[in-house]
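Lecture 7 notes: from sequence to structure.

We start with a single chain of 344 residues. Read the sequence below before looking at the structure.
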Amino acid sequence: MTKAIYLYLPIDINFRNPNYQIPTIENQKDLLCAGLNTPASVPPPTTPTNVPRRRHMMDDDEENVLSAVHDGWMEVMSFSHNVAAQNKRGRGDNDDDAIHLGELTCTKFVTADSPSLNYLCCASQILPHAIFRSVGDVKNNKVNIIEYELEYVQITNVSVSGGTGGKPVETLSINAKIIKTKYIDMDILSSEFEVSQVYKWDNINKTGSKTVHSTKGEPTKTLLEYAKKTLMVNLSSHDPSMVALIKELGLVTDYDLPEVKPSSYKIKVLSNSAPVVYKVVQVVSFDKKSIISAIAEKFNIPLETIESIYSQEDHCEIEADQSFNSDVPTHILFRTSDGKFYGY
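Now the structure, written as C-alpha coordinates:
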Protein backbone atom coordinates (compact mmCIF):
# COMPACT_ATOMS: atom_id res chain seq x y z
CA MET A 1 0.00 0.00 0.00
CA THR A 2 1.02 3.61 -0.51
CA LYS A 3 2.26 5.14 2.72
CA ALA A 4 2.71 8.74 1.59
CA ILE A 5 2.95 10.88 -1.53
CA TYR A 6 5.12 13.97 -1.81
CA LEU A 7 5.76 16.76 -4.32
CA TYR A 8 8.94 18.82 -4.44
CA LEU A 9 9.04 22.16 -6.25
CA PRO A 10 12.13 24.41 -5.92
CA ILE A 11 10.14 27.51 -4.97
CA ASP A 12 12.28 30.45 -3.76
CA ILE A 13 15.33 28.17 -3.67
CA ASN A 14 18.71 29.08 -5.13
CA PHE A 15 19.17 25.98 -7.25
CA ARG A 16 22.24 27.57 -8.85
CA ASN A 17 24.12 27.24 -5.57
CA PRO A 18 27.01 24.79 -6.16
CA ASN A 19 26.00 22.92 -3.00
CA TYR A 20 22.42 22.46 -4.17
CA GLN A 21 21.45 18.88 -4.94
CA ILE A 22 18.22 17.79 -6.65
CA PRO A 23 16.48 15.53 -4.09
CA THR A 24 15.98 12.50 -6.32
CA ILE A 25 15.65 9.07 -4.73
CA GLU A 26 19.19 8.29 -5.93
CA ASN A 27 20.45 11.24 -3.84
CA GLN A 28 18.20 10.59 -0.84
CA LYS A 29 18.13 6.80 -0.60
CA ASP A 30 20.77 6.59 2.14
CA LEU A 31 18.99 9.21 4.23
CA LEU A 32 15.61 7.54 3.77
CA CYS A 33 16.92 4.05 4.56
CA ALA A 34 18.81 5.26 7.63
CA GLY A 35 15.60 6.73 9.00
CA LEU A 36 13.42 3.73 8.20
CA ASN A 37 16.05 1.39 9.66
CA THR A 38 16.12 3.19 13.02
CA PRO A 39 14.59 1.29 15.98
CA ALA A 40 11.14 2.43 16.97
CA SER A 41 10.87 4.73 19.96
CA VAL A 42 8.46 2.36 21.68
CA PRO A 43 8.77 -1.25 20.46
CA PRO A 44 5.58 -3.29 20.47
CA PRO A 45 5.35 -5.68 23.46
CA THR A 46 5.31 -8.78 21.23
CA THR A 47 8.64 -7.98 19.57
CA PRO A 48 10.70 -11.24 19.42
CA THR A 49 14.32 -11.29 20.55
CA ASN A 50 15.81 -12.48 17.25
CA VAL A 51 14.43 -9.82 14.93
CA PRO A 52 16.75 -8.28 12.29
CA ARG A 53 18.50 -5.00 12.91
CA ARG A 54 15.44 -3.06 11.83
CA ARG A 55 12.76 -3.08 14.55
CA HIS A 56 9.14 -3.05 13.48
CA MET A 57 8.25 0.59 13.55
CA MET A 58 4.95 1.93 14.68
CA ASP A 59 3.09 3.78 11.91
CA ASP A 60 3.70 7.11 13.65
CA ASP A 61 7.45 6.49 13.66
CA GLU A 62 7.51 5.78 9.91
CA GLU A 63 5.42 8.86 9.23
CA ASN A 64 7.78 10.98 11.31
CA VAL A 65 10.76 9.64 9.37
CA LEU A 66 9.09 10.30 6.02
CA SER A 67 8.10 13.81 7.12
CA ALA A 68 11.67 14.55 8.21
CA VAL A 69 13.22 13.23 4.99
CA HIS A 70 10.69 15.18 2.92
CA ASP A 71 10.97 18.41 4.87
CA GLY A 72 10.04 21.26 2.54
CA TRP A 73 8.04 18.96 0.27
CA MET A 74 4.27 19.15 -0.18
CA GLU A 75 2.20 16.21 1.00
CA VAL A 76 -0.22 14.96 -1.65
CA MET A 77 -3.44 12.99 -1.22
CA SER A 78 -3.88 11.62 -4.76
CA PHE A 79 -2.42 11.98 -8.24
CA SER A 80 -2.89 10.94 -11.87
CA HIS A 81 -0.79 10.99 -15.02
CA ASN A 82 -1.11 9.66 -18.56
CA VAL A 83 0.74 9.36 -21.84
CA ALA A 84 -0.80 8.63 -25.24
CA ALA A 85 0.34 8.15 -28.81
CA GLN A 86 -1.45 8.21 -32.13
CA ASN A 87 -1.20 5.04 -34.19
CA LYS A 88 1.88 5.36 -36.43
CA ARG A 89 -0.11 4.44 -39.51
CA GLY A 90 -2.31 7.43 -38.94
CA ARG A 91 0.51 9.91 -38.60
CA GLY A 92 1.48 12.38 -41.25
CA ASP A 93 4.87 13.89 -41.92
CA ASN A 94 4.64 16.02 -38.76
CA ASP A 95 4.78 13.93 -35.61
CA ASP A 96 4.66 16.90 -33.20
CA ASP A 97 1.12 16.10 -32.08
CA ALA A 98 1.39 12.33 -32.37
CA ILE A 99 2.79 11.90 -28.85
CA HIS A 100 0.89 13.24 -25.85
CA LEU A 101 2.87 13.59 -22.63
CA GLY A 102 0.04 14.23 -20.20
CA GLU A 103 0.10 16.61 -17.28
CA LEU A 104 0.66 15.25 -13.81
CA THR A 105 -2.36 16.16 -11.71
CA CYS A 106 -2.33 15.98 -7.91
CA THR A 107 -4.64 16.95 -5.06
CA LYS A 108 -3.45 18.35 -1.72
CA PHE A 109 -4.63 20.44 1.19
CA VAL A 110 -4.27 24.21 0.88
CA THR A 111 -1.03 25.16 2.67
CA ALA A 112 1.36 28.09 2.97
CA ASP A 113 2.73 27.12 -0.45
CA SER A 114 -0.61 27.79 -2.13
CA PRO A 115 -0.16 31.53 -2.87
CA SER A 116 3.18 30.79 -4.55
CA LEU A 117 1.58 28.02 -6.62
CA ASN A 118 -1.11 30.41 -7.84
CA TYR A 119 1.52 33.02 -8.71
CA LEU A 120 3.68 30.53 -10.62
CA CYS A 121 0.62 29.50 -12.63
CA CYS A 122 -0.50 33.06 -13.44
CA ALA A 123 3.03 34.20 -14.30
CA SER A 124 3.67 31.09 -16.46
CA GLN A 125 7.02 30.66 -14.79
CA ILE A 126 9.19 27.68 -15.68
CA LEU A 127 10.85 25.70 -12.91
CA PRO A 128 13.98 23.75 -13.86
CA HIS A 129 12.81 20.55 -12.20
CA ALA A 130 10.31 18.91 -9.88
CA ILE A 131 10.17 15.58 -8.05
CA PHE A 132 7.00 13.62 -7.40
CA ARG A 133 7.40 10.59 -5.12
CA SER A 134 5.11 7.85 -3.85
CA VAL A 135 6.44 5.81 -0.91
CA GLY A 136 4.96 2.43 -0.03
CA ASP A 137 4.74 0.53 3.24
CA VAL A 138 7.87 -1.16 4.56
CA LYS A 139 7.56 -4.94 4.31
CA ASN A 140 10.33 -7.47 4.91
CA ASN A 141 12.85 -4.63 5.08
CA LYS A 142 11.88 -3.42 1.61
CA VAL A 143 10.11 -0.28 0.46
CA ASN A 144 8.58 0.52 -2.92
CA ILE A 145 9.24 3.90 -4.52
CA ILE A 146 7.50 5.34 -7.56
CA GLU A 147 9.12 8.59 -8.62
CA TYR A 148 8.55 11.09 -11.42
CA GLU A 149 11.57 13.27 -12.13
CA LEU A 150 10.40 16.25 -14.19
CA GLU A 151 12.33 18.90 -16.11
CA TYR A 152 11.20 22.26 -17.56
CA VAL A 153 8.17 22.32 -15.32
CA GLN A 154 5.19 24.66 -15.49
CA ILE A 155 2.10 24.77 -13.28
CA THR A 156 -0.74 25.15 -15.75
CA ASN A 157 -3.74 25.00 -13.43
CA VAL A 158 -4.61 25.51 -9.76
CA SER A 159 -8.15 24.93 -8.60
CA VAL A 160 -9.36 25.21 -4.99
CA SER A 161 -12.49 23.86 -3.35
CA GLY A 162 -13.64 24.04 0.24
CA GLY A 163 -16.56 24.19 2.59
CA THR A 164 -17.49 24.35 6.24
CA GLY A 165 -16.44 21.46 8.41
CA GLY A 166 -13.36 20.53 6.39
CA LYS A 167 -10.03 21.73 5.06
CA PRO A 168 -9.90 23.42 1.65
CA VAL A 169 -8.16 21.30 -0.98
CA GLU A 170 -6.49 22.28 -4.23
CA THR A 171 -5.70 20.42 -7.42
CA LEU A 172 -2.54 21.19 -9.40
CA SER A 173 -1.80 20.41 -13.04
CA ILE A 174 1.92 20.18 -13.76
CA ASN A 175 3.35 20.14 -17.28
CA ALA A 176 6.88 18.91 -18.01
CA LYS A 177 8.90 18.78 -21.22
CA ILE A 178 11.13 15.93 -19.99
CA ILE A 179 9.99 13.14 -17.70
CA LYS A 180 11.76 10.23 -16.07
CA THR A 181 9.54 7.64 -14.38
CA LYS A 182 11.09 5.21 -11.90
CA TYR A 183 9.75 2.05 -10.28
CA ILE A 184 12.05 0.96 -7.46
CA ASP A 185 12.05 -1.74 -4.79
CA MET A 186 14.71 -0.79 -2.24
CA ASP A 187 16.29 -2.82 0.55
CA ILE A 188 16.40 -0.47 3.55
CA LEU A 189 19.20 -2.46 5.23
CA SER A 190 21.65 -2.06 2.34
CA SER A 191 20.13 0.97 0.51
CA GLU A 192 20.37 -1.05 -2.72
CA PHE A 193 17.79 -1.06 -5.49
CA GLU A 194 16.69 -4.67 -5.89
CA VAL A 195 14.35 -3.62 -8.69
CA SER A 196 14.97 -0.49 -10.74
CA GLN A 197 12.96 0.09 -13.91
CA VAL A 198 13.18 3.51 -15.52
CA TYR A 199 11.99 5.20 -18.66
CA LYS A 200 12.79 8.72 -19.85
CA TRP A 201 11.01 10.73 -22.51
CA ASP A 202 12.17 14.03 -23.99
CA ASN A 203 9.09 15.66 -25.47
CA ILE A 204 11.17 18.46 -26.97
CA ASN A 205 13.18 16.17 -29.23
CA LYS A 206 10.57 13.38 -29.30
CA THR A 207 13.03 10.75 -28.15
CA GLY A 208 13.48 8.56 -25.11
CA SER A 209 15.08 5.53 -23.51
CA LYS A 210 14.30 2.80 -21.01
CA THR A 211 16.00 0.18 -18.90
CA VAL A 212 16.03 -3.36 -20.24
CA HIS A 213 13.47 -5.31 -18.25
CA SER A 214 14.71 -8.47 -16.54
CA THR A 215 12.19 -11.24 -15.90
CA LYS A 216 14.56 -13.22 -13.69
CA GLY A 217 13.76 -11.27 -10.54
CA GLU A 218 17.14 -12.11 -9.01
CA PRO A 219 19.33 -9.75 -7.00
CA THR A 220 22.25 -8.11 -8.78
CA LYS A 221 25.38 -10.21 -8.26
CA THR A 222 27.77 -9.08 -11.00
CA LEU A 223 28.65 -5.87 -12.81
CA LEU A 224 27.27 -7.38 -16.00
CA GLU A 225 23.90 -8.04 -14.37
CA TYR A 226 23.97 -4.51 -12.95
CA ALA A 227 24.68 -3.11 -16.42
CA LYS A 228 21.78 -5.08 -17.88
CA LYS A 229 19.39 -3.79 -15.23
CA THR A 230 20.42 -0.13 -15.44
CA LEU A 231 21.19 0.27 -19.15
CA MET A 232 19.01 2.96 -20.72
CA VAL A 233 18.22 2.02 -24.32
CA ASN A 234 16.84 4.27 -27.05
CA LEU A 235 15.17 1.63 -29.20
CA SER A 236 14.22 4.13 -31.92
CA SER A 237 17.68 5.50 -32.65
CA HIS A 238 19.12 2.45 -34.49
CA ASP A 239 22.49 3.69 -33.24
CA PRO A 240 25.06 1.06 -34.34
CA SER A 241 27.10 1.46 -31.15
CA MET A 242 24.02 0.91 -28.98
CA VAL A 243 22.97 -2.15 -30.99
CA ALA A 244 26.50 -3.53 -30.68
CA LEU A 245 26.46 -2.97 -26.92
CA ILE A 246 23.12 -4.74 -26.55
CA LYS A 247 24.45 -7.69 -28.51
CA GLU A 248 27.64 -7.76 -26.44
CA LEU A 249 25.61 -7.85 -23.22
CA GLY A 250 23.70 -10.82 -24.57
CA LEU A 251 20.35 -9.03 -24.55
CA VAL A 252 19.35 -9.82 -28.13
CA THR A 253 17.46 -12.95 -27.10
CA ASP A 254 15.74 -11.07 -24.29
CA TYR A 255 14.83 -8.02 -26.34
CA ASP A 256 13.60 -7.82 -29.91
CA LEU A 257 15.78 -5.19 -31.54
CA PRO A 258 14.08 -2.95 -34.09
CA GLU A 259 14.60 -3.89 -37.70
CA VAL A 260 16.26 -1.17 -39.75
CA LYS A 261 14.47 -0.84 -43.07
CA PRO A 262 15.60 1.51 -45.84
CA SER A 263 13.09 4.01 -47.19
CA SER A 264 13.63 2.77 -50.76
CA TYR A 265 15.45 0.10 -52.77
CA LYS A 266 17.51 0.31 -55.96
CA ILE A 267 17.50 -2.55 -58.44
CA LYS A 268 18.99 -2.97 -61.91
CA VAL A 269 16.63 -3.98 -64.70
CA LEU A 270 17.98 -5.34 -68.00
CA SER A 271 17.22 -2.97 -70.89
CA ASN A 272 19.54 -4.47 -73.54
CA SER A 273 21.31 -7.84 -73.80
CA ALA A 274 23.95 -7.06 -76.44
CA PRO A 275 25.72 -5.14 -75.16
CA VAL A 276 24.44 -5.72 -71.64
CA VAL A 277 22.82 -2.54 -70.35
CA TYR A 278 20.80 -2.02 -67.19
CA LYS A 279 18.57 0.76 -65.98
CA VAL A 280 18.57 1.61 -62.28
CA VAL A 281 15.04 1.53 -60.90
CA GLN A 282 14.13 2.83 -57.46
CA VAL A 283 11.24 1.15 -55.64
CA VAL A 284 9.67 2.35 -52.42
CA SER A 285 8.33 -0.98 -51.20
CA PHE A 286 9.70 -4.50 -51.14
CA ASP A 287 6.92 -6.30 -53.01
CA LYS A 288 6.23 -7.59 -56.53
CA LYS A 289 3.51 -5.06 -57.35
CA SER A 290 5.70 -2.07 -56.47
CA ILE A 291 8.61 -3.44 -58.52
CA ILE A 292 6.44 -3.92 -61.63
CA SER A 293 4.97 -0.42 -61.24
CA ALA A 294 8.43 1.12 -60.92
CA ILE A 295 9.69 -0.76 -64.01
CA ALA A 296 6.70 0.39 -66.10
CA GLU A 297 7.30 3.99 -65.06
CA LYS A 298 11.06 3.86 -65.68
CA PHE A 299 10.75 2.18 -69.10
CA ASN A 300 7.72 4.30 -70.03
CA ILE A 301 5.61 1.30 -71.02
CA PRO A 302 2.03 0.35 -70.07
CA LEU A 303 1.81 -1.53 -66.80
CA GLU A 304 -0.29 -4.32 -68.31
CA THR A 305 2.42 -5.16 -70.87
CA ILE A 306 4.68 -6.55 -68.13
CA GLU A 307 3.68 -10.20 -67.83
CA SER A 308 6.29 -11.50 -65.37
CA ILE A 309 9.59 -10.61 -63.69
CA TYR A 310 12.65 -12.78 -63.01
CA SER A 311 15.64 -12.61 -60.70
CA GLN A 312 18.94 -12.90 -62.55
CA GLU A 313 20.62 -14.12 -59.36
CA ASP A 314 18.83 -17.48 -59.28
CA HIS A 315 17.17 -17.36 -62.75
CA CYS A 316 13.75 -17.94 -61.16
CA GLU A 317 10.47 -16.18 -61.75
CA ILE A 318 9.33 -13.96 -58.93
CA GLU A 319 5.81 -15.26 -58.52
CA ALA A 320 4.85 -13.63 -55.22
CA ASP A 321 6.24 -11.43 -52.48
CA GLN A 322 7.35 -14.54 -50.57
CA SER A 323 9.79 -15.34 -53.39
CA PHE A 324 12.12 -12.63 -52.12
CA ASN A 325 12.99 -14.53 -48.91
CA SER A 326 13.91 -11.23 -47.21
CA ASP A 327 16.55 -10.42 -49.89
CA VAL A 328 15.88 -7.79 -52.51
CA PRO A 329 17.03 -9.01 -55.96
CA THR A 330 19.63 -6.64 -57.36
CA HIS A 331 19.26 -7.64 -61.04
CA ILE A 332 15.92 -8.24 -62.72
CA LEU A 333 14.68 -8.94 -66.24
CA PHE A 334 11.07 -9.00 -67.32
CA ARG A 335 8.94 -10.59 -69.99
CA THR A 336 6.31 -8.67 -71.89
CA SER A 337 2.83 -9.77 -72.95
CA ASP A 338 4.13 -10.83 -76.40
CA GLY A 339 6.16 -13.59 -74.72
CA LYS A 340 9.56 -11.97 -75.28
CA PHE A 341 12.12 -10.91 -72.69
CA TYR A 342 12.68 -7.17 -72.80
CA GLY A 343 16.07 -6.29 -74.29
CA TYR A 344 16.45 -9.47 -76.32
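The longest strand covers residues 142-161. Keep this in mind for problem set 3.
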